[in-house]
Amino acid sequence: MKRIIESYKKKLESEEGVIVKRGASLRIALCYPNTHAVGMANLGLHTMYELFNKIPEVSCERVFLPDDLELKEYEKSRTPLLSLETQTPVKNFDVVAFSISFETDYLNMARMLQMSQIPVWSKDRNHFHPLVVMGGAASFLNPEPIADFTDIIAVGEGEILAFQLVDAITENETKDEILLSLARIGRGFYVPSLYDVIYNDDGTVFDYLPKETGVPKRVGRALASANPKEGTLRRAIKRGETEVVDFLMNQDTFAPSTAVWSPKAEMGDRLLIEISRGCSQGCRFCWAGYNYYPPRVVPAKDILAKASEWRGKTNKIGLVSTAVCDHPEISTILSELRKMDYRISVSSLRLDQISEELLDALVESNDQQIAVAPETGSDRLRRVINKNLTNDEIVDICGAVFDRGMLTVKLYLMVGLPTETYEDLEEMIVLVERIKNRMLEAGKRFGRAGKIIPSLNGLVPKPNTPFQWDAVCDEKELKNRLKWTAKNLSRIPNVEVRMMSARIAHEQALFSSGDRTVAKVIEAAARMKGNLNDALRETGIDARFHTSRNRSYEEFLPWSIVDSGLSFEFLKTEREKSQAALSSKPCPAVEKCTTCGVCPTTWLANAPVGLVQLQSLRTPRSLAVIA
Ligand code: SF4
User: Fold this and answer.
1) Ligand 1 atom closest to the CA of 596, numbered from 1
2) Cα(88)–Cα(448) distance, rounded to whole angstroms?
3) Could you identify the atom of ligand 1 that is nearest to the CA of residue 594?
4) Which of 122, 485, 533, 558 is 20–30 Å from 367 (CA)?
5) Atom 2 in ligand 1: which residue has the minimum CA distance?
């Protein structure tokens, strides 16, 4: 145990911004189901740490999956899992809250519960045990595979739910009262134990039946809607509606950003700041796009204020966003950050929105590598997935990157897309070859050659996307396609191929599209140190039932317990358009749109007043119509 404490203290000594509150009445263990080095690069974790600790009666400490050396010590000394800040056993906290961004971390989550000596199954816990809460993108996309571990699942965004959770805990006496009061809000909190799951004879879900009155049949998604909708702000700027622009840009908006400076962690040497959430593009495979509709922005003033506060500590800043250049104030943000002499990096770059200005800023930052996502090499398949770019445009955009001396490009590519053929995969080889030739041409001017790094991933159809009804490509077939593509790509000089295994794609599909029974596999695999095959054998669960069959439109999908706001008709139409290789327009992110169903439901109707930013916009009469 001594060695574990020493290791934790060493980590703490290397950090700044750690919060330790003695004597708080509510103690929350904020768990990240991966190691400290990985977890500290996750903005969701920083955000929840900051938000929980802002509440006077709360003390929030971090807990990570121990690294290899610590793990050995834990096993040797049989020490229950400890928090980082005060090395308190996790089981002694009032609340154990997991922040889970990726379903691949579910095994780590179950393992951390096992290490904490907290019963893994919620039914085995009593009022002496901590409340176990799950939050984060993965858990609200499809909460069912982890439902049986969990007392409460946060359905939506933490900025709004953290405070409601703490209010319910402090205002109610017993665990049952807390659970019932949260479930009855109807939006933002899913309490799995308050539902009976009814199955059909063929094993598919028939329905979820609430066990108590006032508990909704479907749980709405809660959105942090203090931020302006991206399109509304853009239009107002374009139309010169100064009053509206001022109103939108001058509200106090929370900018999620690094809370603890942790230089030894991945990306720990830079200030990470979320500049916008969601993406307007509507790529049909992208859960992040649909899950965070409508796209919203953090106004430039809030981003720049944080950047200026942190400049004394670092000259590196990472802009976190799925669509950096969609931000209506991106020019101001980039030019002001450059004036502050920041080296700018971006979390991901959408090919269609790379601007000269952004490229210049990235070149200035001495980044030698850039990552972009053509997804496929076929213009037809790109229409299938609604990524509206052609191969010619992609080669031109990569050319603009190479002409600035950045000669290494990572290309994210997918295999196993709906309707894909080997001719499509051949086109992928041709596209990579064209990009490589363009790189060599530019390289001559700089006297060096770069590298093209295609990263091949199998498509995993995700809940709440138009591909939610589709099976993942058969494992053997996917393996063949990945191998064939990788082999042909690796024959091209200056190309270094990376590839995800077909097995991993199938594991991901099981954890993202499974129903409540999949929890048994997660528990067993965590116990068996990650051996999924043995876990499937022990539990008798047929993974293919969850991953490898096309679902009918009539089937009640396990994740339907969450009302994402996306309408059935919208997703169905998008799927049918995809099969006909027809593209759709992006989400305009403006007030009056009703296209996908999110804004008229999750965003506006019946939402608690604090959630609805656009209602407050209507207060001044002159601003009655803004879109
Ligand atoms: S309703 Fe319209 S603006 Fe709102 S998220 Fe859907 S497409 Fe975007």
Assistant:
1) 6
2) 54
3) 1
4) 485
5) 593
